[in-house]
Amino acid sequence: xxxxxxxxxxxxxxxxxxxxxxxxxxxxxxxxxxxxxxxxxxxxxxxxxxxxxxxxxxxxxxxxxxxxxxxxxxxxxxxxxxxxxxxxxxxxxxxxxxxxxxxxxxxxxxxxxxxxxxxxxxxxxxxxxxxxxxxxxxxxxxxxxxxxxxxxxxxxxxxxxxxxxxxxxxxxxxxxxxxxxxxxxxxxxxxxxxxxxxxxxxxxxxxxxxxxxxxxxxxxxxxxxxxxxxxxxxxxxxxxxxxxxxxxxxxxxxxxxxxxxxxxxxxxxxxxxxxxxxxxxxxxxxxxxxxxxxxxxxxxxxxxxxxxxxxxxxxxxxxxxxxxxxxxxxxxxxxxxxxxxxxxxxxxxxxxxxxxxxxxxxxxxxxxxxxxxxxxxxxxxxxxxxxxxxxxxxxxxxxxxxxxxxxxx
Length: 409
Prior knowledge:
The chain starts with 7 loop residues before the first helix and ends with a helix. The radius of gyration is 20 Å and the shape is globular. Helices cover 50% and strands 6% of the residues. The chain has helices spanning 8-25, 52-67, 74-85, 114-129, 135-150, 175-192, 195-215, 250-267, 274-290, 316-333, 336-353, 383-390, 400-408, and strands at residues 50-51, 99-100, 111-113, 151-152, 157-158, 161-163, 173-174, 223-224, 248-249, 302-303, 314-315, 364-365. The strands form six sheets. A two-stranded antiparallel sheet has the order 1-2. Helix 3 (74-85) packs across helix 4, helix 6 runs parallel beside helix 8 and helix 7 packs across helix 9. By secondary structure, it is mainly alpha-helical.
């Protein structure tokens, strides 16, 4: 253990960054419903649909802001809940469309995604925690869909993609949707006390982290067949895919590590030892195989399974998750090395990613740390950076909403 802590000035800087990000995010409110994709100037991008995952992330962020005392954020939470009960909800078949034209109401995507539905659960949980009058009903509906359509008991994992009418199930299975399911399930369990969702979160963690990641020496494979057989070459011809890239996604190693630590916090004395051990291993692997491995500072987006960088662009969310994971490990263990990582990686964010001229963060940098847009054009998402910024301001918890509530108690 160590007596080291962040200084008052460092804490104040995180608070300042959270406020700055929130101010930028206000521009994502689409007058026709939901939240839209922002460009680098913080303006809605013409022609882009309203997407469920972005609407959910922004509803979640504004819900956290409301819980933390920003009364003006309540209107944005209400706007998000309205979209999730109206524009984006499939009244005919149940569940949520992935994307809808805000001008015409036309459904742009013809699938139902586990990824997006995990975020509906998260947004609904945060809205409920913030006291939104429609939050509980939305959460109950989202959990029913998750349980009936996506959770598969025999796998201990969730499914990925259904057709719009739930008539056919895609053969792809992946761990990205499952990672965000863990995030959402932990929030449900902590905020509502429904223990079955904690049990399911731990089952996913055990299968993915203690299983798949450990088996591949912490080079987590992301893509699988319908029988959960690993497909190591998946998207080898599209390695920079924003949601299903080929190879090892460095940022996801950090996210899984943090989520394992969050689950350990909620389990307390009943937590299995592997949650901490595996989180430490994932974080160490991500740091050693992802940080400055091509001669420049920053984390590469992906590597192959021999640790060679594949997509060398630096994504803002990867650095944000690195800081968040390192902070959580420091908080839980007092590791001086983890605190040093927090400071080193946050300094990188401050120098290269934080955009003080136009707002928010550059979402992507090239291999030389200059702004680029090969995978992530614009600045559609403050979720990763905002969560990172408020994490050092919160007590230990299994979720952001739960931790904020603890701080208010």
